[in-house]
Design brief:
With 118 residues, this protein is an alpha+beta fold. The model has no long low-confidence stretch (mean pLDDT 95). The chain has 4 helices and 4 strands, in the order βαββααβα. Helix 1 packs antiparallel against helix 3. It has a 4-stranded antiparallel β-sheet. It has a single domain, classed as Alpha-Beta Plaits, CATH 3.30.70.100.
């Protein structure tokens, strides 16, 4: 089970760029699927949120090993794709995430800090 993830979240498309945003989503999924087939990531999970009044429209969760995900974020292709997404969609964020065993470790550390400040 992977211990790390990259959360790629976005808001709404900029007016007039909706079609390009939809096409880029398809390109991104092709890219992420290829990364999974090569073993760079362990899984990809796209999520489109229903309208809820908030800023987050959807996200993609890339799961894998921390070292491989860190290296992925430094690749020219990943950075180019992220830049294209930012030009088409509002509120784009690329965030490291704890999953699997690293989630338990992060929560334990959080609990320790609460106790230390009590």
């Amino acid at each position: 089970m992977p211990d790390a993830a990259i959360f790629i979240g976005w808001g709404t498309p900029y007016p007039g760029r909706e079609g390009k945003a939809l096409a880029l989503f398809g390109e991104a999924m092709t890219y992420y699927t290829a990364l999974q087939q090569k073993g760079t990531i362990e899984s990809v999970e796209p999520v489109l949120l229903t309208p809820h009044g908030g800023d987050l429209g959807g996200f993609i969760l890339l799961r894998g090993q921390p070292d491989k995900l860190a290296a992925l974020k430094l690749t020219e292709e990943f950075q180019r794709l992220t830049t294209r997404v930012q030009l088409l969609l509002s509120g784009v964020g690329v965030i490291d995430a704890n999953v699997g065993g690293s989630l338990a470790t992060a929560m334990a550390s959080y609990g320790e800090q609460i106790q230390a400040l009590a």
